[in-house]
Amino acid sequence: MWGISATTEHPKEAMILLNEMYTNPELSNVPYTAQSWIWPGAFSTPVWEPYPEDYWKQIEDFNNTALRSKALGFVPDTSAITNEITACTNVVAKYNASLMTGAVDMDENLPKFQEELRAAGIDKIIETKQSQYEEWLANK
Fold first, then answer.
1. Sign of the C-alpha dihedral, residues 135, 70, 86, 5?
2. Domain spans, the chain
3. Burial of 105 by CB count in 10 Å (0-12 exposed, 13-18 middle, 19+ buried)?
4. Is the peptide bond before 50 cis (omega within 30 degrees of 0)?
5. For 21-41, how does the pLDDT look when each residue is reduced to its tens digit (9 = 90+)?
6. Which end of the chain is more exposed for a tag (fewer CB within 10 A), N or C?
7. What's CA 30's distance to the chain center, in Å?
8. Is 17 helix (H, G, I), strand (E, B) or coil?
């Protein structure tokens, strides 16, 4: 969530600030939000009521014991399916807002959306990524 824009005029200074936000408890103590967990260095901030005193320890334990996807670290090579990805992205852009908000008849438009995705190459995308994933998993 926190990063440095590729277009920033002062990347070194931005990195210095981010480092301070992650490591300096004075900067990471954000008293004006109940969402202190969203800020860098949150574990060094005081626990707010009504949370228990060991709240950050509970969060840390949860994070350390969370299930990790078997696909963690997998990055597909999409060079062979660039045209299909572009075509499917265009189909999604065409239908997404109206389908997600329920602004159209789902029974009529969802099948159209699915058919246009198939025509744009969604099956090739899925097949390509699936085979790469299986190969990656076998060699992991």
1. negative
2. 11-65, 79-138
3. exposed
4. yes
5. 888 877 767 555 556 666 777
6. N
7. 24
8. helix
